[in-house]
Design a protein that fits this description.
This protein is an all-alpha fold. Helices cover 69% and strands 0% of the residues. It folds into two domains: 91 residues, RNA polymerase sigma factor, region 2, helix turn helix motif (Rna Polymerase Sigma Factor, Chain: A); 82 residues, Arc Repressor Mutant, subunit A (Orthogonal Bundle). The protein starts with 24 loop residues before the first helix and ends with a helix.
């Protein structure tokens, strides 16, 4: 299973930390350096939390919770991994814990996610009439969001980190605290499950 590969159902993002080197600034520079690192990563962490939980208001709260946890754990950051990877791990754990709360889980299929990536989706179909394309994009995106929300948390997390955040297998393994082989097998199962749920929609789109 670990050697099998499935194509992403969601278009892959540009890797958010491609080329990141292990960063020692947080423990060496103290709170000021930590604040600079957080400022650099803030938008990415809020976006990650948005994708994990489904609405902007909760995402901002969860990102703030992740930043507080990271600050309190600052002395444990040893620089062996990129700072962004360490911060992602804290943010993902905060989001997974929050998704176990009934209120947040019920809100995770909100319409707010339709605002993410609209420009990129439109760019893939430049010849389509704009109002019709926007409507089709919204409908397809909402179906993807609904399908993602049916996945269990470990599969939702791995597909978001790989296919929406653009992290490589090694980084995902570090974020989730699992082996690379586990990442690959989870991703295969997550993509297969998502494709099965979206197959009627994908088939309809291919025939139009």
């Amino acid at each position: 299973m670990e050697g099998r590969h499935t194509q992403p159902v969601i278009a892959s993002a540009t890797p958010i930390d491609a080329g990141d080197a292990p960063d020692q600034r947080a423990p060496r520079g103290g709170p000021q350096a930590f604040g600079e690192l957080i400022a650099d990563a803030q938008e990415r962490i809020v976006t990650l939390c948005w994708r994990m939980c489904g609405n902007r208001h909760d995402a901002e709260d969860l990102a703030q919770e992740a930043f507080v946890k990271a600050f309190r754990a600052m002395e444990t950051f040893d620089g062996r991994a990129a700072f962004s990877t360490w911060l992602y791990r804290i943010a993902v754990n905060v989001c997974l814990s929050a998704r176990r709360r009934p209120r947040l889980r019920s809100a995770s299929v909100g319409d707010d996610l339709s605002d993410l990536g609209a420009a990129g989706r439109a760019a893939r179909h430049p010849g389509a009439p704009e109002p019709l394309q926007r409507a089709a994009d919204r409908e397809m995106h909402q179906r993807v969001v609904d399908a993602l929300d049916t996945l269990d948390d470990e599969h939702r997390a791995v597909i978001l980190l790989r296919d929406m955040e653009g992290l490589d297998y090694r980084r995902i393994a570090q974020v989730l605290g699992v082996r690379v082989g586990t990442v690959k097998s989870r991703l295969h199962r997550a993509r297969s499950a998502l494709r099965e749920k979206l197959l009627p929609t994908l088939g309809t789109m291919e025939n139009t």
